[in-house]
């Protein structure tokens, strides 16, 4: 083989990879946008249903994404969910928990009760304790992407919308920390030294907090000098968050915990409210669209069969446990039973957060993730289309949706004649 032929082959290899990655991104964006607009034009459902439907069709035709995620799918998922979690964290005032202990107890109880209930139900299917605990932790967080996007599209505002953001932020925090602790325990139990495992855990958590603090500090400085409602300033903030997420991936810390902590630090170390376009405007909106298509395609018919009744049992148990905790404490936390039920329904979907946590577990502990993957992915597949509809119903039940604009008459009124009443 000549040097020229060798060089040509190398060039061809370099050319194919970027082209395929670019075609993936463009295809996902186009399919999701078309499906979302079709759903919005023909039904009263949120566009999110169309985005997810595009992914489900791709999965049914055998073109879904494979786990663990890699390439463009990994980048899009990290960035989109990281942006959403940073935004949710930056809108959560933790002093609310101090003023309302009933709400703080609701957060702890709904996360703990759902995890314990799911683990016990999984044991009824003869699933080992490690896999049952993994399923319980992966099913703990509520969907930051689904509830946030649907509420934004429908213009929802009110007690239930605000509480859903708070509970989502907190149970995501609990779940990521619990998963990190479980991986530490598993590493020590697998023949490693407990001291080494705990030292690695401490270094990981300190690094996560450090990166989060740098991001929060950078956002604070930018906000002091720029108007974040300006498009250029928003793009600067978008770039800072994206860079921090890429840096977190590079140093091996959680791309879920870091942006969430950064948002919480930004909001709770200053009295100033932070205002910028939701989802960071057009750039963030495009990433969120692609996130829904990717999550909607992360299953196969074989996985649905493998997950089977265990996945359905997990979903039912998870909803009943969360609903029992939220409704039981609704009066003490300052809401009506109707609002408590609506909040429970908003916490129902299982989506991108669980998928990213499962992806991390598959990379770190493939043997442990092997048993949990079919159940979690089957659960995500079942709720991907139902979840946004359930959130829309919950917002309507809670009264958080703005009044619908009056419909215009298709036929213009004829002008009245002079003297006619």
Automatic annotation (TrEMBL):
<dbReference type="InterPro" id="IPR038770">
    <property type="entry name" value="Na+/solute_symporter_sf"/>
</dbReference>
<protein>
    <submittedName>
        <fullName>Cation:proton antiporter</fullName>
    </submittedName>
</protein>
<feature type="transmembrane region" description="Helical">
    <location>
        <begin position="306"/>
        <end position="329"/>
    </location>
</feature>
<dbReference type="Pfam" id="PF00999">
    <property type="entry name" value="Na_H_Exchanger"/>
</dbReference>
<keyword id="KW-0812">Transmembrane</keyword>
<feature type="transmembrane region" description="Helical">
    <location>
        <begin position="72"/>
        <end position="90"/>
    </location>
</feature>
<feature type="transmembrane region" description="Helical">
    <location>
        <begin position="341"/>
        <end position="359"/>
    </location>
</feature>
<feature type="transmembrane region" description="Helical">
    <location>
        <begin position="164"/>
        <end position="186"/>
    </location>
</feature>
<keyword id="KW-1133">Transmembrane helix</keyword>
<feature type="transmembrane region" description="Helical">
    <location>
        <begin position="280"/>
        <end position="299"/>
    </location>
</feature>
<feature type="transmembrane region" description="Helical">
    <location>
        <begin position="48"/>
        <end position="66"/>
    </location>
</feature>
<feature type="transmembrane region" description="Helical">
    <location>
        <begin position="198"/>
        <end position="223"/>
    </location>
</feature>
<feature type="transmembrane region" description="Helical">
    <location>
        <begin position="371"/>
        <end position="395"/>
    </location>
</feature>
<feature type="compositionally biased region" description="Basic and acidic residues">
    <location>
        <begin position="410"/>
        <end position="421"/>
    </location>
</feature>
<feature type="transmembrane region" description="Helical">
    <location>
        <begin position="235"/>
        <end position="260"/>
    </location>
</feature>
<feature type="transmembrane region" description="Helical">
    <location>
        <begin position="102"/>
        <end position="125"/>
    </location>
</feature>
<dbReference type="InterPro" id="IPR006153">
    <property type="entry name" value="Cation/H_exchanger_TM"/>
</dbReference>
<feature type="region of interest" description="Disordered">
    <location>
        <begin position="402"/>
        <end position="421"/>
    </location>
</feature>
<keyword id="KW-0472">Membrane</keyword>
<feature type="transmembrane region" description="Helical">
    <location>
        <begin position="131"/>
        <end position="152"/>
    </location>
</feature>
<feature type="domain" description="Cation/H+ exchanger transmembrane">
    <location>
        <begin position="33"/>
        <end position="393"/>
    </location>
</feature>
């Amino acid at each position: 083989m000549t040097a020229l032929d060798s060089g040509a082959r190398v060039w061809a290899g370099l050319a194919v990879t970027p082209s395929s990655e670019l075609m993936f991104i463009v295809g996902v964006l186009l399919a999701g946008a078309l499906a979302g607009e079709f759903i919005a034009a023909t039904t009263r459902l949120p566009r999110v249903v169309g985005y997810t439907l595009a992914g489900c069709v791709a999965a049914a035709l055998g073109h879904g994404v494979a786990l663990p995620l890699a390439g463009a799918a990994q980048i899009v998922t990290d960035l989109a969910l990281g942006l959403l979690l940073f935004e949710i964290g930056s809108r959560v005032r933790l002093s609310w928990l101090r003023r309302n202990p009933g709400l703080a107890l609701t957060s702890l109880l709904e996360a703990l009760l759902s995890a314990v209930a799911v683990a016990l139900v999984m044991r009824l299917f003869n699933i080992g304790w490690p896999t049952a605990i993994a399923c319980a932790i992966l099913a703990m967080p509520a969907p930051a992407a689904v509830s946030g996007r649907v509420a934004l599209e429908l213009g929802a505002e009110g007690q239930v919308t605000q509480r859903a953001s708070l509970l989502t932020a907190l149970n995501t925090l609990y779940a990521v920390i619990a998963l990190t602790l479980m991986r530490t325990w598993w590493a020590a139990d697998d023949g490693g030294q407990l001291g080494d495992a705990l030292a690695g855990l401490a270094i990981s958590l300190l690094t996560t907090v450090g990166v989060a603090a740098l991001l929060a500090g950078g956002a604070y400085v930018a906000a002091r000098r720029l108007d974040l409602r300006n498009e250029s300033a928003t793009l600067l903030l978008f770039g800072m968050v994206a860079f921090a997420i890429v840096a977190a991936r590079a140093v091996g810390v959680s791309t879920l915990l870091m942006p969430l902590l950064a948002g919480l630090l930004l909001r709770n170390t200053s009295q100033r409210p932070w205002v910028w376009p939701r989802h960071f405007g057009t750039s963030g909106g495009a990433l969120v669209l692609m996130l829904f298509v990717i999550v909607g395609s992360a299953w196969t018919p074989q996985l649905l069969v493998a997950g089977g009744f265990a996945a359905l049992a997990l979903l039912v148990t998870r909803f009943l446990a969360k609903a029992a905790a939220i409704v039981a404490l609704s009066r003490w936390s300052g809401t009506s039973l109707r609002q408590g039920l609506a909040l429970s329904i908003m916490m129902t979907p299982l989506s991108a957060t669980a998928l990213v946590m499962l992806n991390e577990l598959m990379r770190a502990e493939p043997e442990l993730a092997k048993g949990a993957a079919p159940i979690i992915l089957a659960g995500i597949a079942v709720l991907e289309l139902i979840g946004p509809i359930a959130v829309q119903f919950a917002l309507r039940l809670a009264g958080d949706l703005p009044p619908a604009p009056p419909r215009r008459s298709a036929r213009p009124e004829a002008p009245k004649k002079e003297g006619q009443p």
